């Protein structure tokens, strides 16, 4: 117990939480701000999307975890999309993986291909967590 973790100790406060607090303080003072923060929808989802979501949630086959590489049908659909959109050929079994989002995917990729002591170039701008993930 009491073990220290260097990477955790280097983590800064979550920038979006800090920005949200700053926006709340500004609004409380009556200031008119233009919010360029994380986007959230300002209108309802289309009804056909909601109906499909309800349909999927009611299907018992969706009541479990996905495979670690992602659902095979989704990976195949991504291959077709990349071919159609970018004229790129991919192998759904060897070259496509589904992640929870781009932050997770990029962080996992960088962690997988780098080792302690390696120099890693992180673009700027980037997600706030990326410079601290190595």
TrEMBL record:
Residues 32-132 form the Aminotransferase class I/classII large domain. InterPro entries: Aminotransferase_I/II_large, LL-DAP_aminotransferase, PyrdxlP-dep_Trfase, PyrdxlP-dep_Trfase_major, PyrdxlP-dep_Trfase_small. Its cofactor is pyridoxal 5'-phosphate. SUPFAM superfamilies: PLP-dependent transferases. Keywords: Aminotransferase, Transferase. It holds the Pfam family Aminotran_1_2. GO terms for molecular function: pyridoxal phosphate binding; transaminase activity. This is Aminotransferase class I/classII large domain-containing protein. The lineage of its organism: unclassified sequences, metagenomes, ecological metagenomes.
């Amino acid at each position: 117990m009491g073990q220290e973790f260097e990477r955790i100790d280097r983590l800064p406060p979550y920038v979006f939480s800090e920005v949200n607090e700053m926006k709340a303080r500004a609004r409380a003072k009556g200031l008119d701000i233009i919010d360029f923060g994380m986007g959230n929808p300002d209108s309802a989802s289309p009804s056909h999307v909601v109906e499909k979501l309800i349909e999927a949630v009611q299907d018992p086959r969706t009541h479990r975890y996905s495979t670690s590489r992602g659902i095979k049908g989704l990976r195949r659909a991504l291959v077709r999309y990349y071919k159609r959109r970018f004229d790129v050929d991919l192998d759904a079994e060897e070259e496509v993986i589904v992640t929870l989002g781009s932050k997770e995917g990029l962080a996992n990729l960088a962690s997988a291909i780098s080792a302690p002591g390696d120099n890693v170039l992180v673009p700027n701008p980037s997600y706030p967590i990326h410079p601290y993930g190595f």
